[in-house]
Amino acid sequence: MDSKDYLKDISEIKDMMNRSSRFISLSGLSGVLAGVYALIGAGIAYWLVSNSGREYLILDGRIFRLVILDLFLIAFFSIVTAIFLAVKKARKNNNKIWDVTTKRLLFNFLIPLVAGGLYILIILNQQKYGFTAAMMLIFYGLALVNASKYSIGDIQYLGIIEIVLGLICALLPGYGFWFWVLGFGVMHIVYGTVMYFKFDRKK
Amino acid sequence: MSIINNINKVFDHRIRLGIMSVLMVNEYANFTALKELLDVTDGNLASHAKALEKAEYITIEKQFIGKKPNTRYIATKLGRIAFQKHIEALEQLIKSSE
């Protein structure tokens, strides 16, 4: 055996370790699109609130419910896009989409996210809605950091950025909307683009 | 040559190398998962797993989930150390040949 074979052995070991323990079919493009949806959704929410005749958003019905619906639509389209592109990437690379790594990634991503989501809903019901954007950013960031052990693409860095943005946002009440736009819109587009060129383009 | 001595004959096969790689980073792996990851036939996987078990590098646990048999493979401490040494030896060889 010459050194070329040893190199092949090493790269095969690495490949097996990654494929068996990490979900590798995440597409950078889904990050970019999630960011675009967030920006469009934020634009709609901004338009809704500024045309409501009031300066502040209050929990009293139509406009508030429309904004919540807007948020759910952003989440819905982002998730559908992520699934669609992941399935496509997995097929292209001949990987299985629903295996241990997928389940592990989802489980670890959803724990902080669902806990945070429920917490936000609970305090919204108690009329405390000042920190919603900050908490969305923080819990989403925690979910990303938690999931990063089970995926490629250094998503822990995006997670840490979201957490930091959320904390700064909590320090500056009244700017929640703009931090949300920055965290969920701009950061997703920047990060998705970097990941797309780093992982998807090469192959 | 001490480096050559660390190259482990037991791992000198693509499938056995693959089985150990998977088991190094997972608590355990079952038969079907390994089969799909390594893209091998049932018989091939079983015989190579047996070779690793004989060297006491992995343990094979057979159990039933309902009525379906489920075989789990787990790397032993000895196996982990041996595989680590094998990787180090591979790296050494690559370095020295450069």
Provide an overview of this structure:
The complex is a heterodimer of chains A (203) and B (98). With 203 residues, chain A is mainly alpha-helical. Chain A has one domain (25-200). In chain A, 77% of the residues lie in helices and 0% in strands. Chain A is elongated, with a radius of gyration of 19 Å. The model of chain A has no long low-confidence stretch (mean pLDDT 89). Chain B is an alpha+beta fold and 98 residues long. Chain B has a single domain (9-88), classed as Winged helix-like DNA-binding domain superfamily/Winged helix DNA-binding domain (Arc Repressor Mutant, subunit A), CATH 1.10.10. In chain B, 60% of the residues lie in helices and 18% in strands. Chain B has helices at residues 2-6, 14-25, 31-38, 42-54, 77-97, and strands spanning 29-30, 58-65, 68-75. In chain B, strands 1-3-2 form a 3-stranded antiparallel β-sheet. In chain B, a hairpin with a 2-residue loop joins strand 2 and strand 3. The longest helix of chain B has 21 residues, at 77-97. Chain B is elongated, with a radius of gyration of 15 Å. Chain B starts with a helix and ends with a helix. The interface between A and B is medium-sized, with 17 and 20 residues.
Structural class of chain A: mainly alpha
Roughly how many Å apart are the termini of chain B?
A: 18 Å
Greatest contact between two chains: A-B, 17 and 20 residues
Q: What global shape of chain B is seen?
A: elongated
**Oligomeric grouping of the chains:** heterodimer
Shape of chain A: elongated
- Tell me the series of helices and strands of chain A, N- to C-terminal: HHHHHHH
Give the gist of this structure.
The complex is a heterodimer of chains A (203) and B (98). Chain A is mainly alpha-helical and 203 residues long.
Throw out a few tags for this protein.
heterodimer; A: 203 residues; mainly alpha; 7 helices; B: 98 residues; alpha+beta; Arc Repressor Mutant, subunit A; 3-stranded antiparallel β-sheet; 5 helices; 3 strands; elongated
